[in-house]
Amino acid sequence: MTTTHLLYLHGFRSSPQSAKAQRLQRHIEDTRSHVVWSAPQLPASPRQAADLLLQTTRSWAGLPPESVAVVGSSLGGFYASWVAQQLRCKSVMINPSTTPWVTLEQHLGEQTAWHNPEESFFFRPEYLEELQALNVNGQPPAAPQLLIAAMGDEVLHWQDMVARYPAAQLLLDEGSDHALSNFENYLPQIDKFLGW
Is 90 exceeded by the pLDDT of residue 47? Predict the structure, then answer.
């Protein structure tokens, strides 16, 4: 069944204005205009982010799980795995954070927004526990997964991503970076995975 509802989740300090989010949205508008698209600005609190994602997708609850999908990048990839378990839907993880409660510990305190340096937020110690509460590592995937991992990722280790998602269809990029600057090249594979 083709995907009719798609959720995009940005990474830490990022936003729906990210290059990947904007490119994917344009791609959908140009080629899949019937698809319902949502890319919310995620709050700093993981608990609040989870609540927002459940609220955002509440109206999708009656849909066949096969028609829903989630795409997430970095921390958004971690969230995407959690959402996919709740909605029993397909998921695409792009350079996902696998243990954000560990990797984000060094980012406690005031942070600036990547796409608007004039905006800031406070990343609190309790958010690390909130991240652990959303951890679905070790649970069998509820639906097919696609993992896009860049071996040149300068922020996270691609080996951790591959180990975390043993059941996922794997696209291993030998040259790109954490932002997956060549994201455009993967649109055909994402289309195929989503059943378009």
Answer: yes
